[in-house]
Design a protein that fits this description.
Elements: H1 6-12, E1 22-26, H2 33-42, E2 47-52, H3 60-63, E3 67-70, H4 76-89, E4 95-100, E5 103-106, H5 115-124, E6 129-136, E7 138-139, E8 154-157, E9 162-168, E10 173-182, H6 184-188, E11 201-207, E12 238-242, H7 244-251, H8 253-256, E13 267-269, H9 274-279
Parallel strand pairs: 1-2, 1-4, 2-3, 6-12
Antiparallel strand pairs: 4-11, 5-12, 6-11, 7-8, 8-13, 9-10
């Protein structure tokens, strides 16, 4: 179904924003758009909302299954404003998710369980948000795939990830159960990445709530939403496997000619399976088995 604007969608489809989970997928370019939408349809979201330019076409089988809204993602702040408008319109407690094209959500046991099943369990643990790590994917051969995007020959870093305490300037102390996570292509190519964009943590899955807002550093105004676990035990985490950083670095003239390969000795082929991400410690099953 197509809408004339985000306002039109919110006016017509507030019934979709009662329980969720609803996926908001922001399309920045024409790279793997249909693949991204199909992946999230198969993940078990109740509804998929694609915010994308009118110029991009979609296969017929996808058009009938998603809600399409004309949208320009060229200014990053417009994405956060759109998400906050959806939060404000949604019923408190509605589960929302956001990502960009060429990004793919993986969660523990996602091959046999749906995202709705996972979030039901997460809600029972009295959690209103879930930490996800944005894991950089990249083509193994940039000569064959100069855009750095290849589903068939995708690689990821199997090590080199680390965390630092997140500082609370007001209290002059580290924030409880919050860390800034780094690694992947953003870490290895940090000379080409603004320091404000180097973190790989993102609260991609969360429940709408009155007064809640997403900030442009991918954290929320409610500090409990930014925690990686509850006080009493480890919780579920998930991964957003993303070509976004690699393709941006190859598209940018300032970094394109400086990078002839993203592979290094800790690169490994991506298997497109949650077991690999669990084995590498890139997401956490918590108490969910």
């Amino acid at each position: 179904m197509m809408y004339s604007s985000l306002e039109d969608f919110l006016d017509q489809k507030k019934a979709l924003l009662v329980k969720g989970p609803v996926a908001l997928i922001f399309v920045e370019d024409d790279v793997e758009v249909a693949t991204t939408l199909r992946h999230h349809l198969q993940s078990g979201f109740q509804s998929i909302v694609a915010l994308m330019p009118d110029a991009f076409d979609l296969p017929r089988d996808i058009k009938s299954k998603i809600h399409r809204i004309p949208f320009d993602c060229s200014a990053p702040e417009t994405v956060f404003r759109a998400i906050n408008r959806v939060i404000a319109a949604a019923n408190p407690g509605c589960w929302l998710y956001y990502c960009y094209n060429a990004e793919f959500l993986f969660f523990p046991f996602c091959e046999t369980r749906t995202v709705a099943e996972m979030l039901t369990f997460h809600s029972e643990e009295r959690r209103s948000a879930m930490l996800t790590y944005v894991i950089d994917l990249y083509a193994g051969d940039l000569q064959k795939h100069p855009s750095a995007v290849s589903l068939e020959t995708a690689f990821l870093d199997k090590s080199g990830y680390y965390a630092q305490a997140r500082w609370d300037e007001t209290a002059n102390a580290p924030r409880e159960r919050q860390l800034d996570f780094f690694g992947g292509v953003r870490w290895r190519q940090e000379e080409h990445i603004p320091w404000t964009s180097r973190k790989i943590d993102r609260i991609s899955l969360f429940q709408a709530n009155a007064g809640l807002e997403l900030r442009e550093n991918h954290t929320f105004t409610d500090q409990e939403y930014n925690t990686y676990a509850c006080p009493w035990h480890h919780n579920l985490t998930a991964a957003v496997c993303s070509f976004r950083t690699a393709k941006a670095l190859k598209r940018n003239p300032g970094s394109d000619f400086a990078i002839d390969s993203f592979k290094w000795h800790n690169s490994t082929p991506f298997e497109w399976h949650s077991r690999q991400l669990l084995d590498l410690g890139l997401m956490e099953p918590g108490q969910w088995f």
